[in-house]
Specification:
Length: 359
């Protein structure tokens, strides 16, 4: 085997955490969808009261697939198996069958679910642990409708989330200028926060709409990052979720969802002009298109890179190793490999042999 060409990944393929299942408005009452998620088939459905159930897609009776492709459906607030008609409620319990009392042990394997800010997320643990932390609900009365884009790619959620502390790549890959970290990366359990500023030259109708930006990234695990942007020239405020979810052993789905803050009293004239004169959906879609452009640049790197457990870092790299240490907690099944990583020597800071992406 040519080891030089082997690609490496972080310690586990499916790190513990909250992962996106679907944008909430895509799952209306009575709706049912299926997907590949964390290397398995799942279904998500919503009953008439709006309760959501996310579970394994296979019926515990004789293995019928409960998703729309398999013939499953939601009827009278229950998920009905297409094979022999067993019916499940939103807790996953079998509550009826066509010809006999429901077997007491017939129960779907369900995942703990949260619906927050228009997103449906479910908890994944490789060792079957209960949720280890909660995600925040961000107030959203003052924000316009969420728009989003998605891409499927070869990659790992630890690698995509690493971008939020990888200050050097903003310059080299995305061409941002004057990128500067503000303060240290803050870590508190499953929460990581990083602040940075940068300059860009994004114009809309000849007006500078993204030129001088302050960003605050809030990370809760490897599947959920939330970034607040404040554009300091126009006064516009944006926020976006970066949601990275393993599909299978190789691929992830990356969803970027974005919102613009509504006009508020005292806002700068440029933000006022944009928010008063342009349809909010149009403006949001414009920013989503910019994000997609940036993500395409990242994808080219992610799809071809390999995980470097002991990176040779330069002074301009930001706090990559703080982030790597933070990530260890999401692999409760990988004690051995965590111990191995801990026993490795810390990455040397070496200004002359720079970062892989340049600095
Ligand atoms: S396999 Fe689902 S009811 Fe028989
Ligand atoms: Fe990036």
């Amino acid at each position: 085997m040519n080891l030089a060409n082997k690609r490496y990944y972080p310690p586990g393929r499916y790190p513990e955490g909250w992962y996106l299942v679907e944008i909430a408005r895509n799952l209306p009452k009575g709706g049912l969808l299926q997907k590949e998620w964390m290397g398995r088939q799942i279904v998500a459905w919503r009953d008439a009261e709006g309760r959501i159930c996310v579970s394994e897609a296979y019926c515990p009776h004789l293995g019928g697939h409960l998703g729309p492709d398999g013939g499953g459906c939601v009827r009278n607030g229950r998920l009905v198996c297409p094979f022999h008609g067993f019916e499940y409620d939103a807790t996953g319990r079998c509550v009826a069958t066509p010809n006999a009392p429901p077997p007491r042990t017939a129960r779907l394997t369900v995942y703990e679910t949260r619906e927050l800010n228009g997103l449906i997320l479910a908890w994944w643990s490789p060792v079957g642990r209960e949720p280890q932390w909660e995600l925040p609900e961000w107030p959203d009365k003052e924000w316009h409708r969420l728009h989003y884009g998605s891409v499927r790619l070869r990659g790992h959620p630890q690698e995509t989330a690493e971008n939020s502390v990888d200050i050097a790549h903003f310059r080299y890959v995305h061409g941002y200028a004057a990128v500067k970290q503000v303060g240290d990366v803050q870590v508190d359990g499953a929460y990581l926060c990083n602040r940075f500023v940068f300059r860009r030259n994004v114009k809309l109708l000849g007006l500078p709409v993204l030129t001088d930006v302050a960003a605050t990234t809030h990370v809760w695990g490897l599947g959920y990052s939330f970034v607040e942007f404040h554009e300091r020239v126009s006064g516009l405020k944006l926020r976006q979720w970066i949601l990275s979810t393993p599909i299978d052993d190789t691929h992830i789905k990356l969803v970027v969802a974005l919102q613009i803050r509504r006009w508020e009293p005292g806002q700068k004239w440029l933000a006022t002009l944009l928010l008063r004169c342009l349809p909010a959906n149009w403006l949001t879609r414009f920013f989503v298109s910019r994000v997609k452009h940036d993500v395409r640049q990242d994808v080219a790197i992610w799809e071809n890179k390999r995980y470097q457990p002991l990176p040779i870092l330069s002074r301009s790299d930001g706090e990559i190793m703080t982030y790597r240490k933070y990530c260890e907690q999401f692999y409760p099944d990988a004690e051995e490999s965590r111990a191995r990583v801990r026993s490795l020597k810390p990455a040397p800071i070496h200004a002359a042999r720079g970062a892989r992406l340049g600095a």
